[in-house]
Amino acid sequence: MANTHAQTIRAFIVGRHPQAELTDDQDIFSLGFINSLFAMELVMFIEKEFGVSLPNDELRIDNFRTVSSMAELVERRLAGAVSA
After folding, report:
1. CA-based diameter of the chain, in Å?
2. CA separation for the pair 70, 52 (Å, rounded)
3. pLDDT (0 to 100) of residue 80
4. Which residues, in sequence order, are CB contacts of 23 under 8 Å at separation 6+?
5. Using CA atoms, how far apart are residues 45 and 55, in angstroms rounded to an integer?
6. Which residues does the UniProt record annotate as the domain Carrier (predicted)?
7. How far apart are CA 51 and CA 19, in angstroms?
8. Nearest alpha carbon to residue 9 among 43, 58, 40
9. pLDDT value at position 82?
10. Rounded-to-integer distance, Cα 78 and Cα 13, Å
11. Between vectors from CA 53 to CA 49 and to CA 56, what angle results, nearest 5°?
12. pLDDT of residue 3
């Protein structure tokens, strides 16, 4: 399932940056794809697309550095929603 989440997240980023050839483990901050507006769009996209809420303690740069880290964040939040 994380692969599907990663594909969805990667498609969102590439949709905003069509010139990007992005792998799941590339640091999108160092590639220059992120500014403050896009960071907020990314948080809102993840919350809406996957039906998760992202509390302040999850809004750390390392959770958003790569497509893989964002997919893992989604998995953790979904797992937490099931067990809660």
Report:
1. 40
2. 12
3. 83
4. 67
5. 14
6. 1-78
7. 28
8. 43
9. 63
10. 21
11. 130
12. 77
Could you tell me the two tokens for 15?
Answer: 């949709």
Report how far residue 13's alpha carbon sits from residue 53's, in angstroms, rounded to the nearest whole number.
19
Alpha carbons 3 and 50: distance in angstroms, whole number: 13
pLDDT at residue 37, as a whole number: 92
Residues 27/65, Cβ–Cβ less than 8 Å: yes
- CB 5 within 8 Å of CB 74: yes
Residue 43 scores a pLDDT above 90: yes
Give the whole-angstrom CA distance, residue 84 versus residue 68: 24
Spatial separation of the C-alpha atoms in residues 49 and 43, rounded to whole Å: 10
User: Whole-model pTM?
Assistant: 0.88
